[in-house]
Specification:
Layout (H helix, E strand, L loop, with lengths): L1 E5 L4 H12 L3 E6 L12 E5 L5 H8 L4 E4 L11 H16 L3 E5 L6 E3 L2 E2 L11 H15 L5 E6 L3 E3 L8 E4 L11 E3 H14 L5 E6 L1
Parallel strand pairs: 1-2, 1-4, 2-3, 4-5, 5-8, 8-12, 9-11
Antiparallel strand pairs: 6-7, 10-12
């Protein structure tokens, strides 16, 4: 598959690029600067792009089989950039006639109980709320794009660099927790989940939670 990877220079983006390449996919990695550190493969090309510009997204996406987004606010960005990115990517894919999109979303909008989202719990960090609410708004935009074959994949409540085990669980719109009630996934295994869903397309039009 020929994949356009948005946000390729970030920690999740780099790991997703590595996972895609290990499975034989060709990857065009997009960052603001046009450089992606830590990825060295003949099937990888790094390019500069603006994910808030639908025309730029359309040009970048043209000729690709699918788009994977690991986009997120950079330091100094307003959380609202997430909704601007979502609007631009959806519009750009339509213009490029590319309909497969796997988006790295947020866990804040996942259910943790009857009519309760993670973001609504007392333990949710206050400093994370602006980004979490922007991510939910971005999902709302994506959920209306019925003409695209999208999947919104969210990590567990805690995601950190770690080990690639290839093991994880998923749930439709629910936070994935272990037997102790903890919600965790390594960035490496989250990248596995992203690429698995890209290849299998088992959760199209789904807000998918991941975790151990």
């Amino acid at each position: 598959m020929n994949v356009l990877l948005l946000g390729a220079s970030g920690r999740i983006g780099q790991r997703t690029a590595t996972e895609l390449l290990s499975r034989g996919h060709a990857v065009t990695g997009v960052s603001r600067s046009g450089t992606v550190e830590g990825v060295d493969d003949d099937a990888f090309v790094a390019v500069a792009g603006d994910a808030t510009d639908p025309d730029d997204v359309a040009k970048l996406a043209a000729g690709h089989d699918a788009v994977v987004s690991a986009l997120g606010p950079s330091d100094g960005d307003s959380p609202d950039v997430l909704t601007a990115m979502m609007e631009a990517v959806v519009a750009g894919l339509r213009r490029a006639d590319v309909d497969r999109l796997v988006w790295t979303g947020g866990a804040g909008g996942l259910s943790v109980g009857p009519e309760t989202l993670l973001i609504e719990t007392d333990d949710f960090p206050e400093e994370w709320e602006p980004v979490a609410r922007a991510a939910i708004e971005a999902y709302d935009i994506l959920s209306e794009a019925e003409d695209l074959e999208w999947t919104y994949v969210a990590p567990a409540a805690l995601i950190e660099p770690g080990e690639r085990t290839g093991e994880y669980r998923t749930a439709d719109r629910e936070l994935v927790t272990d037997e102790e009630g903890d919600s965790y996934i390594s960035m490496e295994d989250f990248a596995v989940a992203l690429v698995d869903e890209l290849e299998a397309a088992n959760a199209v039009h789904t807000y998918l939670g991941t975790g151990y």
